[in-house]
Predict the structure.
Amino acid sequence: DTAVSQTPKYLVTQMGNDKSIKCEQNLGHDTMYWYKQDSKKFLKIMFSYNNKELIINETVPNRFSPKSPDKAHLNLHINSLELGDSAVYFCASSQGTIGYTFGSGTRLTVV
Amino acid sequence: EDQVTQSPEALRLQEGESSSLNCSYTVSGLRGLFWYRQDPGKGPEFLFTLYSAGEEKEKERLKATLTKKESFLHITAPKPEDSATYLCAAHQLSFGAGTTVTVRA
């Protein structure tokens, strides 16, 4: 069983579109995250979500919004996509401060 | 602002040739220094967490150490399957750019 699963794995879309990436974890972890990995391979945290408490990285544009229907899911919605949004997006989960479990990533390409 | 710098960017090793990767950090109140391994097309895989200077952790051919300003990941007698990008992170918030290790048979 995949611990943290993301869908889709690849996403190609045009500028201005709205898209969502889904994430599910079956580890029973209490916190979930979204990270962005740019072309230079830097991983940057975008959001963390714990028991309905959302912590947002201030540098993230408000076109990005996380939605958590329950503790096992944290989806990422992106409105009005821009070329600069092209990157690999990773979902992760954790329990406490133990090392995080990452999904396999969603490669988003905006054309 | 928290900063994490990894060196070298890339490391090419012969099988069995031990080496070390460096992770220098400038953070206020370290709440954990994390090491991950990332294979191409996959998400990072957790290796270690270090919390205080002097702490060491080992897993197979890997050993991580921590000082007040930097962490080292030592690879002893590496094998080709150790080829990957190794990432370090402070607090799980600030990641370095990684060191890509290639081990030749």
About this structure: Chain B has a mean pLDDT of 94. Chain B touches chain A through 21 residues (CB under 8 Å).
